[in-house]
Amino acid sequence: MDSFILQILNGLDKGSAYALIALGLTLIFGTLGVVNFAHGALFMIGAFCAVTMQRILGLSRTVVDETQTDFLGNPLQMQVPYVQDWFGPVAGAAIQDWAVPLAIFLTIPVMLLVGWGMERGLIKHFYKRPHADQILVTFGLAIVIGEIIKAFYGANPIQTPMPSAFVGTVDLGRYLGLGEGAVAYPTWRLVYFFFSAAIIAAVFAFLQFTTFGMVVRAGMADRETVGMLGIDIDKRFTFMFGLAASVAGLAGMMYAPILSPHYNIGMDFLVLSFVVVVVGGMGSLPGAVLAGFLLGITQSFFSNPAFKGYFVELLRLEGTFAGTVITGLDQIIIYLVAIIILLTRPRGLLGRKGVMED
Amino acid sequence: MTKTTYSRRRVLKTGAVAGTAGLMMPTYLRAAAHEGFTNAPTGDTVTLGFNVPQTGPYAEEGLDELRAQELAVEHLNGMGDGGMMNTFSSKVLDGTGIMGKKVEFVTGDTQTKSDVARASAQSMIQKDGCIMITGGSSSGVAVAVQGLCQEAGVIFMAGLTHSNDTTGKDRKANGFRHFFNGYMSGAALAPVLVNAYGADRRAYHLTADYNWGWTQQESMAASTGALGWETVENVLTPVGAGDFSSYIAPILNSGADTLVLNHYGGDMVNSLTQAVQFGLKDRQVNGKDFKIIVPLYSELMAKGAGSNIEGVFGSMNWNWQLEDEGTKAFVRSFGEKYGFPPSNAAHTCYTQIMLYADAVTRAGSFNPCAVVEALEDYEFDGMGNGPVLYRGADHQCFKDVLVMEGVASPSGNANMVGYDTLRIVEQTPRAQVEYAPDHPMFAGGALGECNPGA
Q1: Size of interface A-B (CB pairs under 8 A)
Q2: What residue ranges of chain B have pLDDT lower than 70?
């Protein structure tokens, strides 16, 4: 039971990251009809906003400590952060400690700007081009962004710690009556899950309960008719691109303490996110969220040797070739589930008729 | 020190083998321009190929290797302070290049992909006329490039490659490895681990699902198993998985009290960080404190993992904190040029170039078969690892191995994270990590005959 709850939690946590990225992808596809292969790069930029905030707060002056020497025997040069000069050692260190959450003030404007720049500077020229062209140009853009990040930040993963208040685990076993320490889950991952849920809820509320959102939804359903009503739908869609970029950026920013950012992190998530979008149904926002969680939980369970062992035993496949295949399923299970779902529901879980079918 | 001469019989024999093989080779490898062996240098320069990952998951290590390789070329050509040339037990290198020919080099980006690395090495041999290829950071890549060099008739001086297979089942006559291997890591670490944590431990292994990971896991399970530890589970994880949480969560209820992370590079940084986030280091299982082990450490990984490495044991081929004269000379040369200490990946690449240059000079020829003879069973010192043997039976170097432990930075200097956050626990003597060439973990391969190419 403890193991089961842990895998569910883990799946929800993983799924929330997939869902956030897939949500942004679907927003862009649903509004602009563009298949954006640079969306993973937007996730990466968000993660590097956290790194940048950490570095800004870590900007330092150099003090030479004559009492110590460096590895070459020269007097040791120590770095004293300006933020500690301004706010004192204790408050300054506390501000540095909260670099990742504080990065939200950097991430939102940067992502809106990047999203707007991408849409106006590049993507808009490809609206009427085939999807293959859109994929090629956005994929190329993703590579360029990755290389720019590498040139500035190097190729190594960069440690971006969470605030020390969130280090450690929450003993959920005690709250669930399963005994002390039975289900301990990392605090920051719980924070990430609730943060994702809040962002997803906010995006849905924005589209559902605001006039702007209503117009966007109308535009997603029938762009031409909305245009004929005198509404500048293009401007709204540009904003939606910025919004989608911000969602991806925030997802990346909050994920930085979980997965140390590196220049290729976007590509790691991109392929999985496209699978999530296709399984959820192209253009379906609830589908993207549902598929994100479904695939996250599936992957989580199939990474557990105990669960796979139980599965093999249930099917009475111990010692057979099929049993061996099942024990190695964790690396392909997402794609297997995608194939099964697409064979049984070709439009995905909640896909609409007519989307990408022309 | 003795000057090695290669035998006429051996060159004729290998030449005959190579001639037969050459009929099946691409045209460029059989070109008449080669005088007796592939890419024989004819002018006053000789070109070496530095094939390292400059992009991809091991790029930082590749770039550090490249720094050391460029430094080695400087020293060979008589520039700089000479580095470890001054402490090397062999004194035939005099700063005039290799046998009076100025050393030049070309670089290639392996991207840590075997096919790309082979294409890059092939281009270096075919277009740039390289006589020797060096580089590494992934065993899959090293094995692939080593195979190509064997076919092409050039020497491959492996950089960072730690799989048993490189000098085990995939060993080749034209390939040489200075770096240690998975077996040696296990043999050095196991006694230290048992001493520190006791003989009654239940270990859970997470293993990178490729050549290196498999042999590393096998080595660790065997060496700790021989001293009483039980391996409760070994889970293979995809390379570059990123988020390892779904592999880490099952450990919590597995009954294991030790986690062995057979991961390297970015994978190790992520898996260790996430294992710490799951509270593994704070857990108590079976009445014992839960422990994490990273069998293969590097400075750049330690830098990436930050404070998460504190209290975590691992092993290294060499470390800049050693106090022998060779290490001091190399650290000074590298540090003054680049502003930070060299990694153990940098050290092995620098050493390999020096050993190649030395072997050519002692043999009096660039002929790969002459170089092979000069390196086989060669004993040397002064290169940072104490006395070292390049064993002829498998072309593997045998030397002391370092057992390391992650610690809090003693200097508090942010620029030294990864360098001073690894402490040398023990310099395990060479005798403890030696094994027979036909040891089961290294069986199934044969060096074959050296191939001079043309």
Answers
A1: 139
A2: 1-35, 57
Q: Between A285-302 and A333-344, two packed helices, what is the crossing angle to 10 degrees?
A: 140
Which of B110, B204, B209, B252 has the highest number of chain A CBs within 10 A, making it the mutation to test binding with A? B252
* CB-CB neighbors (< 8 A) of A158 in chain B: 304
What is the model's pLDDT at position B304? Answer: 85
Q: What is the C-alpha to C-alpha distance for residues A157 and A259, in angstroms, rounded to an integer?
A: 8
Q: Do B411 and A72 touch (CB under 8 A)?
A: no
Contact call for residues A272 and A294 (beta carbons, < 8 A): no
pLDDT digits (tens, 9 = 90+) for A123-177: 888 888 888 888 899 999 999 999 899 889 987 788 899 999 998 888 887 887 7
| Interchain CB distance below 8 Å, A168 and B305 | no
User: Which residue among A156, A305, A330 places its CB closest to the CB of B300?
Assistant: A156
Rounded Cα distance, A318 and B257, in Å: 27
Burial label for B111, CB within 10 Å (0-12, 13-18, 19+), is: buried
User: Which residues of chain A does B330 touch, with a Cβ-Cβ cutoff of 8 Å?
Assistant: none
Q: Is the ipTM of this complex over 0.95?
A: no
DSSP strand pairing (B388-390 vs B378-380): antiparallel
- The verdict on pTM exceeding 0.80 is yes
Q: Do B240 and A268 touch (CB under 8 A)?
A: yes
Q: Do B246 and A14 touch (CB under 8 A)?
A: yes
Secondary structure class of B53 (helix, strand, coil): coil
DSSP B341: P
Give the one of B278, B335, B336 whose C-beta lies nearest to A169's C-beta: B278
Q: Please tell me the predicted confidence (pLDDT) of residue B5.
A: 46
> Smallest CA–CA separation between A276 and chain B, in Å?
17
Residue of B nearest to A189 (CA): B277
How long is chain B?
A: 454
Contact A189 B277 (CB under 8 A): yes
pLDDT at A357: 57
Q: Let me know if domain A2-344 sits in CATH 2.20.25.
A: no
Sort out which chain B residues have CB atoms less than 8 A from A188's CB and list them. Answer: 277
Phi/psi at A346 (5° precision): -55, -25
Sorted by where each begins, the domain ranges of chain A are: 2-344
Q: Which residue numbers in chain A have pLDDT < 50?
A: none
Domains of chain B (ranges, CATH numbers):
35-180+322-399 (3.40.50.2300), 183-316+402-433 (3.40.50.2300)
Beta partners for A169?
A: A186
What per-residue confidence (pLDDT) applies to B19?
Answer: 46
DSSP H helix total and E strand total for chain B: 13, 17
* Test mutation, B214, B247, B253, chain A, max A CBs within 10 A: B253
